[in-house]
Structures are given as structure tokens and as C-alpha cells.
Queue: 2 jobs
Job 1
Amino acid sequence: MKRLLCLLALVVLTGARDPILVPEISQHEVQVRQGFRGADLLLFGAILTPEGSRAGQDYDIVVVLKGPTRSIVLREKQRIAGIWVNAVSAEFRSAPTYFAVASSKPINKIVDDKTAAIYELGLPWLQLSPIGSYDPKQQARFSAGLVDLMQRDGLYKEDARGVTVSEQVLYQARIALPSNVQTGTYTAETFAITHGRVVASAISRVQVKKQGFERFVELFAENDGFWYGLVAVAISVAMGFLAGRLFALI
């Protein structure tokens, strides 16, 4: 909140020419511990006119929260002789592990498709960067399949009424992170839009980190992969031995 007030004062004093977005976020670090059930992020801020006063025209706000990207291989199942096997597959170079969009109105009522695609303002315009050459129809089918799977896991979402704007100055949006989010740096990009044109944007960042025993296991696996593998095998063998002894007693 102090940072938000300082930036507001700075904008008023400097008199910037373009509208200025001053974003803030309720927490810049989310700690993932045992029993983590997700977190709610409050993204809020203000938009000021070039004179540093209340906006004299209507602005729509769109907030895009994107998680770290990774390569994903998607395989299509096909039934052959009564058995489901892997058939055609597609690999995406930089699919976000989390993607959420909240807006003050439905995106198609704010911008046209070209602008939405440039800024990735929604799931239909998400750039998934497939690797290799695919038939356009096949690429579209795999892209839609990946988005559908991520939506079912609660990792991709859209809320066409998720942003509230007060007197064309203050805005706020709540976006939920599910319990199965990946760790890493999340970027929250806010766009101010008027008459179908993006007039201002700003970025905030959130760190999602594992803490406690989960953090120890993660660091152990990353820094000492060989010993981590040996310990994992030893634990598996011990559990199998104990299970065998228990069943023998029964």
C-alpha cells in the first residue's frame, strides 16, 4: 500500500503524458507447505490521467496472471484392437503452467481479435508455440485439447467480470491459485483499454516457493540427483519388503 501511494504521488508531480497504471498485489510471495490448499491473490491499483487526476473517460481493465512456462508433450489416444495406445503427439515449447485472465467486461466487447492476440487477452489467443510442422487443423485440435486439460485441472481460467473499477480510478481483481500450482515466478500484467486500444500496461510479480520439508526434497533432488535417486530406490525397496512381511503375517 505504501508503494502504491508513493507511485501515485510521483505520477501527480511529474505529469506524465500517457495514462499511468499503478499496480499492486496483496502478496508477492506464496509459500507452498505441506497441506497447501491454494491461495487467493488480490490485484489492485489505480489508473491516472496525464494530469494525475481522475480519468475523464471510461477505461476497461484486463489482468493476465501467467505462471512459468515449460515444454509439454500432448499425446492423442487411439483404440486399436480393443486397446488404447498413444497415437499422434504434439510438443509445445513454452506453454504456461498457469494462465488466468480477469476483465471488467467480456474480452470481445473490449478489443478486437487482433489486439487480443497481440496481448494474449484470453484462452483463445494464448500463444502455445508448438514445435515442428503440423497441419493447421491438427495444431488447433491439440491446442484446444491442452487448454481443456489445463482448465479441468483449474490451471487455466477466465473471468469476464473478475475486475471491478471504481470511478474510473481504482480497480481490483481476485485470482485464485489452486493447490497444484507449479513453483516459480508468476507475472501479473494489467492493461488499461479504451475504445479498443491498450493505452497503458504494468507488471507485478509473485514468487511461488516451496517451504519446509517440501523445499528440502526439492533442493535435494536438484543438487544431489544421484543420491536422491538412491534414497528413493532404497525407500521403495524398504516399503515393498515391509508390505511383503505384513501380507505374510496375515
Note: The chain has two domains: 2-211, 212-250.
Job 2
Amino acid sequence: MLLSQLPNGTHAVVQRVVPANADVGEATLRRLGELGFIAGEPVQVLRRGPGGREPLAVQVGETLFALRLLEAQCIEVQTPDGAIL
């Protein structure tokens, strides 16, 4: 499952960071890793912006970030029920 698909309040664990589409470069993927989006880190989508879209307020570990939808689509997560898509 992608981080962008998680409902608000859902807890998950980062599995990996992947390019979502051609608009995502290596610099974006590296930045996400530097921010703490690495395999095994707990993550939670707290809220979404106006209309349920951008930005996404996301907590990874103990840190809060605002991510664009494109960035959240690059982060694969596993939910407590074991779903990975």
C-alpha cells in the first residue's frame, strides 16, 4: 500500500521508497530517505489538506512532515493487518 492511500490516523511501517512516476527524480527519493522514510520506520498519516488532498501531515518516527501527494505516492508501507500493495 502507498502512504498516499492510508486513511487519516492509520499506523503503518515504511517498506521502501520507490519512484512513483517519471516526475520523481533520484534527488526526491534521496530526500525522503534523509527525512527518515526508511524501511522499518513507523509512519502515520495525521491529516490531509483542503478537500482531502495536499499537503499530507505525516508523522514518521517522532517527526512531523508535510508531504506533497507525489512524494507520498513514492512511499510503500505495510499496515498492521499486513497489507502491502
Note: The two ends are 4 Å apart (CA to CA).
